[in-house]
User: What shape does this take?
Amino acid sequence: MLHYSHHVRHSHAESSHRRAVAGFSLRHTPVIWVCCLLLVFLPSSLPVLAQTRLLDSLRAILTQYTDSSRYRILLSLCWESRAVDPLASITYGEEALQVAQKYGILADVSRTHRFVGVAYRNIGNYPKATEHIFKALELDEKSGDEREIGHSLNTIGRIFISQQKAQEASNYLERAFQLAQKVNDERLLAYCLLNMMQVRHLQGNYSESLGYGLRALKMWEKIGAKSNIAATYLDLGLQFKELANYQTALEYYSKALALFEELHQESDISTTKNRIGVIYLALEQITPARLNAEQAYNIAQSMQLRVQMKESLWILAETSSRLGNYKQSLEYYRVFKNMSDSLFNEESAKQSALYNAQYEYGQREQRIVSLEKDVQQQAFVRNMLIGMAVLLVIALLLFANRFRLKQRSEMMLARRAEELAEANTKLRTAQLEIAEQNRRLREMDKEKTQLLALTAHDLQNPLSAIQGVAEALHNESHDDTLVPATLVHTMSGVILDTAKRMFEMIVKIISADALETGKFSFDTSTFQANFIVTSVVDRFEQMALLKDIRITTDVPSTPILAYADQTATIEIIENLLSNAIKYSPKGKRVVVRLSEAEVLRTNHIWTREEWEKMQNGTAELEMESCTRIEIKDEGPGLTEEDKIHLFTKFAKLSAQPTNGEHSTGLGLAIVKHLTDAMNGRVWCESERGQGASFIVELPQAAQRKG
Assistant: This one.
């Protein structure tokens, strides 16, 4: 488990903030002026007593003002409280933004957003942190201040590191590092190096990560920032821990803890004790591991630091398990799992991705505008050069022989025009082809992303279930008594059911991919549809009985032949019947019907004359027989919006499984692909609240043979 010190990660240049505060204080009371001078001249890691007195002075001053003068004081309190009390920092920052909006204050608003974003990140609220920091970046880019842009980019990189997104973090950090070098900001350079260290850590490149960390440590020692030095010790210890050099890791953690305790930075003390607990756990020293975790948890709970609480709970769960207290371990793990879900939920990731996409879209729009200007300028220069060349040629031709050269020039110009027209046509064709390829690539990339996200999300719960049962069996095997056979039977049944579910998911994903890429081979033949339908229904009887659902079949006794791929037909019926059971409430009925039907010839191209005759009733319609399979359920039915996206991959429909069953969103898409490939058709007839009927029509053997 990885946690990061909010001091090292905070990418604001403290000195610039203090200069701004000092400028404000000269217009107010001597007390404010003295406090702001302390902000300017004291180092970034203020002694605890001085910092406490400064905060007390700022709070006392704040009560004396009710107008726009509160803004700078609130901004100072937000900055100075970020380490000792993140919740208070958020309160001060939010109030500062309200004052700025009320009085139309523009100065340092981006910095206020950044301070608030860092405070939200420190308590583990990543959606709010992302919102404020991207707002800071937007304001900084409008102002054009490259130093502030670099700080915002670096802080955004930290947000993505906290969410375990190494590539997105790297994109922002590289830009921040370039700006830091350009404006020669040593503090920003040190922050970037330390954050790049964490990116390499996430990528598993621990040797390169150590290199970045040692460079950052050297810079922080030069600057003299104790808090940042301590945080660098903390992250260096983490790299040695990953390299299994536990003794060196413990030494760095001890150095960090001593500095954090000296500075009274409770949040970082909690983080450090958690990491020390992890080291002791790796060394099988359970008692000190548990003691450090309990101390870290008490601090984190008092400050509402969810990330540190989560790490402490994991250590406490592990130590309880190793001490044989499995009930307590399970309770710790349950709370840990709930907290993990709240910290790294899908909505949080979506919001970060949304802000990232919006920002990249804005950047792309700016590049497009710039390219359009360049193209216009190049076109102007090109036209000027072409015009000058044409004038020069005409002048030379007229000088030599006006009439003769005039005729020749006209011929040359005509030929040139044809060549240019042909070249422009080819260029336009190439552009259209490239645009179409790009569109297809974007669609494929989107589908791959959806498929990976779906697979990762859907396989998580089955794997967790298998792991939990396996761990329970493993733990039971260490007891002196034998494991009861009933318990083994029950747990193995859970493993078997979960594995079957995972296998079904994987088969559907492979089938969808095979159909998309054309790797699915069809073996068309003539077969009796009666036997196929009844055999599939027999296999699903048990699944229906579990939900008290009755399957009624209407299959003629006379053979009905179909001309299609037998395996594909079975898969179509299985998908539709599985969905009917899955989306039907308990105690309902599912009807499976097999019949013959007469339809218009599907492979006939109608001429205009034939169509007019058919409308006038003077032409006889050409019909053909087909095999029709209908599966009707008594579920919630489908809305008109559902019907539009019904047979698309990953479609999100209003209807949901009635007993918590799993759905990949691929079944109906596979049905559609298979049916189309066999020259058949499939559709749905449904009204909201009236159930749904899925009908599949396949060619008949007689039609194909005739």
Q: What stands out?
A: Residues 290 and 316 are 6 Å apart (CA to CA). The chain has three domains: 6-264, 275-344, 524-705. The domain at 275-344 is CATH 1.25.40.10 (Serine Threonine Protein Phosphatase 5, Tetratricopeptide repeat).
